[in-house]
Design brief:
Layout: H1 8-22, H2 33-45, E1 50-54, E2 60-66, E3 74-79, E4 99-100, E5 103-105, H3 109-128, E6 137-142, H4 155-161, H5 163-166, E7 170-173, E8 179-182, E9 185-194, E10 196-197, E11 200-205, E12 209-210, H6 220-232, H7 242-252, H8 261-268, H9 270-280, E13 283-290, E14 297-298, E15 301-310, H10 316-327, E16 332-336, E17 340-341, H11 350-362, E18 367-373, H12 379-386, E19 389-392, H13 401-407, E20 414-416, H14 417-434
Parallel strand pairs: 3-6, 3-7, 7-19, 9-18
Antiparallel strand pairs: 1-2, 2-6, 4-5, 5-20, 8-9, 10-15, 10-17, 11-15, 11-16, 12-14, 13-15
The chain binds zinc ion.
Length: 436
């Protein structure tokens, strides 16, 4: 493993991350202007002026730009809000920013104030070094990623209302960077795509009646049981999307047939199968149910809430016939609830090459693999708005990836200072490669 040298960037990023953690930007309500002012002040100290773009005064986004030639532009994209934290569940104060055994503790350390600090330091240090990019380099720290309802206060709103401030050809964002050893070789995941979150309500109809006389009614709750079973055992026909194909080729050394893909992955490592399985087809998880509000009333309607994730570029219209076929005929309807995400960026790009060269310098023998993350990030708005090649990548080498996944949005979130420093170096490397 590469040795992490003590550098000024490391100290600078640690201090900035501690300051960012110590300002509470739990969303809702957000109050991201607290983090935005810290970033504005930090960048001002190295002579960089920020654009302060806020729909509401407390919810500012900051954008800084290192102007370059007319080459392609690159954004370091990050968000400054966090999810909530319940101090009772934590070993330390979630807003302490304490350093313990080489790790900085606090809400947002991984998602994603650590990345914010690394991006700010990478950006400022490049400017200080006199870096002259061939295209614009942007630092974009947005509000309201974690909630973002309606137009929101963050990137969705910026893309709609301040497009020229955030338009970019390439972006490095959150969503990837986990390191996993598969078949004896480390791979780093890069989130080049996202599944579409397309939840729906399965509304099952029956006929109400008094619960003491079940024979006279048609119990929608009981009817729903059969459909819930059908949803849970649904096995759609697998397909090999480009992300899964390249992932498997990289690890297996050849392309498996789509029907063998999962078995071949399992032979290498259970975790490979766990990662590849959701890339082969849409997934369905029934998670909520609502029927009668009175025990003595047989419900005429039962609503089953289903978490559904579609493959990138698959639509609810593509999925509905498959789901209906699995459910079979009956007195029910499907009601889709605001599908979001589902975009992808190409894999053969200069940004990909820059990350590949970073990974092989970081850890000789390690490989970069594409992934379609199951959740939703701001990358979606850039891809949709400008056709930006946006990847999620922040390498975690010191912290075990399974632990990191467990800590995100949960108690005792923290980041290794070594990983923070590597994040700075990764972003500096990408900017130098891409905007040379
Ligand atoms: Zn995040």
């Amino acid at each position: 493993m590469a040795v992490v040298e003590e550098t000024g960037h490391r100290r600078e990023a640690s201090t900035l991350l501690q300051e960012l953690i110590r300002v509470d930007t739990v969303n809702p309500p957000g109050n991201e202007s607290r983090a935005a002012s810290l970033l504005r002040d930090y960048l001002a100290r190295v002579g960089i002026e920020c654009e302060w773009i806020a729909r509401e005064p407390e919810r500012a986004n900051v954008v800084a730009r290192l102007s370059g030639g007319d080459g392609p532009s690159l954004a370091f994209l990050c968000h400054t809000d966090t999810v909530l934290a319940d101090p009772a569940e934590w070993e330390r104060d979630p807003w302490s920013g304490d350093v313990v055994d080489g790790e900085i503790w606090g809400r947002g350390a991984l998602d994603m104030k650590g990345h914010v600090a690394a991006a700010a330091v990478a950006f400022a240090s490049l400017q200080r070094d006199g870096f002259r990019p061939s295209g614009d380099l942007l630092f974009v720290a947005t509000a309201d990623e974690e909630v973002g309802e309606g137009e929101g206060y963050g990137l969705r709103w910026l893309v709609d209302e301040h497009a020229e401030a955030v338009r970019c050809d390439y972006a490095v964002n959150e969503g990837g960077g986990e390191r996993i050893v598969l078949g004896g070789r480390p791979v780093y995941l890069c989130a080049t795509a996202e599944k579409m979150s397309a939840p729906f309500l399965l509304r099952v109809h029956g006929r109400s009646g008094h619960a003491s006389m079940p024979g006279i009614a048609d119990n929608a709750l009981v009817k729903a049981a059969r459909y819930i079973e059908a949803l849970a055992s649904f096995e759609p026909e697998p397909t090999l999307i480009p992300e899964a194909k390249v992932f498997l080729e990289t690890v297996l050394g050849e392309t498996p047939s789509v029907h063998e893909a999962l078995a071949r992955a399992r032979e290498v490592d259970r975790r490979l199968a766990d990662l590849v399985a959701p890339l082969l087809a849409l997934t369905l998880s029934p998670t909520m149910i609502e029927a009668s509000h009175k025990r003595n009333v047989i419900p005429a309607l039962c609503d089953v809430g289903v978490d559904c994730r579609l493959l990138p570029e698959q639509t609810p219209a593509d999925a509905e016939p498959l789901i209906r076929a699995a459910l079979g005929p009956g007195d029910y309807e499907l009601q889709w609830i605001e599908p979001t995400g589902g975009t992808r960026s190409e894999l053969q790009t200069p940004l990909w090459d820059a990350l590949v060269s970073f990974v092989s310098e970081l850890e000789p023998g390690a490989r970069l693999v594409p992934d379609a993350c199951p959740g939703f990030t701001d990358s979606h708005f850039l891809r949709e708005g400008f056709g930006t090649v946006a990847y999620g990548f922040f390498p975690l080498m010191a912290m075990d990836s399974e632990l990191a996944t467990k800590l995100i949005h949960s108690a005792d979130e923290r980041i290794a200072v070594d990983d923070l420093q590597r994040g700075v170096e990764m972003l500096r490397h990408v900017a130098r490669e891409l905007l040379a």
